[in-house]
UniProtKB/TrEMBL annotation:
SUPFAM superfamilies: Nicotinate/Quinolinate PRTase C-terminal domain-like, Nicotinate/Quinolinate PRTase N-terminal domain-like
UniProt record similarity statement: Belongs to the NAPRTase family.
Protein name, UniProt field: Nicotinate phosphoribosyltransferase
Domain (Nicotinate/nicotinamide phosphoribosyltransferase): residue spans on this chain: 168-394
Pathway(s): Cofactor biosynthesis; NAD(+) biosynthesis; nicotinate D-ribonucleotide from nicotinate: step 1/1
Domain of life of the organism encoding this protein: Bacteria
Gene name as annotated: pncB
Organism: Azohydromonas caseinilytica
InterPro entries: N/Namide_PRibTrfase (IPR041525), NAPRTase_N (IPR040727), Nic_PRibTrfase (IPR006406), Nic_PRibTrfase-Fam (IPR007229), Nicotinate_pribotase-like_C (IPR036068)
Keywords attached to this entry: Glycosyltransferase, Ligase, Phosphoprotein, Pyridine nucleotide biosynthesis, Transferase
Length: 396
């Protein structure tokens, strides 16, 4: 059977945008990423170890092709020198290891951050697809197509409603926990054809290139977490990360992620300077209505017209949640909705809740204080307690 990952473009856009920023500003940084499965009932991923090892071997043989590099070079925010770096880039097998302890699968990538940060999305897509190959594909796909059609009909019915002041825009954010690469392509192509008025892009750069869609994404948690270990005061790490982003992209990719140390702590750093320079904010944990109201109140306090800004929701969305959020906010600000698992792995099977997160940087622990307690991630409880103290974050 062919390897799961066929192209190094088959990853989220924000891996490239963060990669470029890190290469330019902190290329010497050392990092460690760890795979974690959050499912309450064990999906027995340890049994996949031999297949995972073969997939990692195959991944480390891939290189970017000239057409792929030309495509990246065509994106105005991707710099020429970064594309030149990618032209000679190849994953090093020595930087990633996998092992099993009973039913539990362990994967750790450790080394120079500009050489190991890219593993994340490929590893998650590999584990997810290998896991679902153990199920009956024909019955799962039949159910998936039935549910896909129901989503389309639901959105078409919603489209008959009188529009609000700002348009409803939907994106695919589903590469990391998809049922398979082929299914993600079918879903994205179907949405593109059936709902062009709503469906505006995908985070999957390979599919964006293949289908002529807009590649979507800016930054992830690892980008801001990295700054917790880069020599600035811990209290100032968010401001340092945002400033470097502004200097790197000069107005492009202007959606800031808010939940590395919680929304309230983020807004304390997101002053008038940043609020004017960034186009909007992305929600990824906590109650989305509470989060959105805080964001709009913050813009109002800064005397910024919220109609010129954008709130992007991406936490556990499905079509109904996206529609409800749009009805709540669509007359007050621009909205975007990134749907992941519910688009690319809604086939009647229990979805995997898997992540591969940055846990150490330059020998120091880093952590995320999520607004959803189950999403808080840290391997060093002492550092986590210190982070809570610095940002006056309540215990879970």
């Amino acid at each position: 059977m062919s390897p799961v990952i066929q192209s190094l473009l088959e990853t989220d856009l924000y891996k490239f945008t963060m990669w470029q920023a890190m290469l330019h500003r902190h290329p010497q940084t050392q990092a460690e990423y760890r795979f974690v499965c959050r499912n309450r009932e064990s999906p027995k991923l340890g049994a996949l170890l031999p297949q995972v090892q073969r997939e990692l071997d195959a991944l480390c043989q891939l290189c970017f092709t000239r057409p792929e590099l030309d495509y990246l070079r065509s994106l105005r925010f991707i710099s020429s020198d970064f594309v030149d770096f990618l032209r000679i880039f190849k994953f090093q097998r020595d930087f990633i290891e996998a092992w099993a302890e009973g039913d539990e699968l362990h994967i750790v990538a450790r080394g120079p951050q500009v050489h190991v940060m890219g593993f994340e999305i490929y590893v998650l897509a590999i584990v997810s697809e290998l896991h679902y190959r153990r199920f009956d594909a024909a019955s799962a796909l039949a159910e998936g197509r039935r549910r896909l059609q129901a989503k389309i009909e639901r959105l078409r019915a919603f489209g008959a409603e009188p529009p609000l002041q700002h348009p409803f825009e939907l994106f695919d954010f589903g590469i990391r926990r998809r049922f398979s690469a082929a299914w993600q392509r079918e879903v994205v192509a179907t949405f593109q054809q059936a709902l062009p008025q709503f469906f505006k892009g995908t985070s999957n750069v390979y599919l964006a290139r293949e289908l002529g869609l807009v590649p979507m994404g800016t930054m992830a948690h690892e980008y801001l977490q990295m700054y917790q270990a880069l020599g600035v005061r811990l209290r100032d790490h968010q401001k340092a990360a945002l400033e470097d982003w502004v200097q790197e992209y000069r107005g492009d990719l202007g959606t800031a992620l808010t939940d590395v140390v919680g929304m309230r702590a983020f807004l304390a750093d997101f002053d008038l300077y940043f609020a004017k320079l960034f186009d909007g904010l992305r929600h990824d944990s906590g109650d989305p209505y509470w989060w959105g109201e805080l964001a709009l109140a913050h813009y109002q306090k800064l005397r910024i017209d919220a109609h010129t800004k954008r709130l992007v929701f991406s936490d556990g969305l499905d079509s109904d949640k996206a529609i409800a959020l749009y009805r709540h906010f669509g007359d007050r600000t621009q909205c975007g909705f990134g749907i992941g698992t519910n688009l690319t792995n809604d086939l009647g099977l229990t979805p995997l809740n898997i992540v591969m997160k940055l846990v150490r940087c330059n020998g120091q622990p880093v952590a995320k204080l999520s607004d959803s307690p189950g999403k808080t991630l840290a391997t060093d409880t002492t550092f986590l307690a210190y982070l809570r103290q610095v940002f006056d974050a309540p215990p879970p």
